[in-house]
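Key result, reporting period 2: structure in, sequence out.
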């Protein structure tokens, strides 16, 4: 039997189609929902790929930041890329 792993995560695409504040609100909601699932299921884990998102939450939503830190300490919330922002490696040239 083959095992398939699903890795839930969020991508914080700063100012791509919405404002920074809009994206922050969207991602805060996603993270709140992930925390709710973690509360309901001890096996659920979640990934964040950019520390920029965490920095913004630390400054603007201390309550959520505190809850996220708890899950990071538990090993249930992982920072998987560890970069400040995720580079777009699919660009055909430096200017698009």
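The corresponding designed sequence is given below.
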């Amino acid at each position: 039997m083959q095992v398939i792993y699903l890795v839930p995560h969020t991508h914080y695409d700063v100012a791509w189609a919405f404002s920074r504040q809009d994206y922050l609100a969207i991602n805060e909601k996603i993270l709140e929902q992930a925390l709710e699932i973690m509360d309901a299921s001890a096996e659920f884990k979640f990934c964040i790929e950019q520390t920029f998102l965490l920095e913004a939450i630390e400054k603007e939503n201390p309550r959520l930041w505190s809850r996220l830190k708890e899950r990071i300490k538990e090993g249930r919330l992982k920072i998987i890329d560890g970069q400040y922002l995720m580079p777009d490696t699919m660009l055909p040239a430096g200017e698009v």
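The chain has a mean pLDDT of 86. The chain has three helices and three strands. This case is discussed further under Risks and Mitigation.
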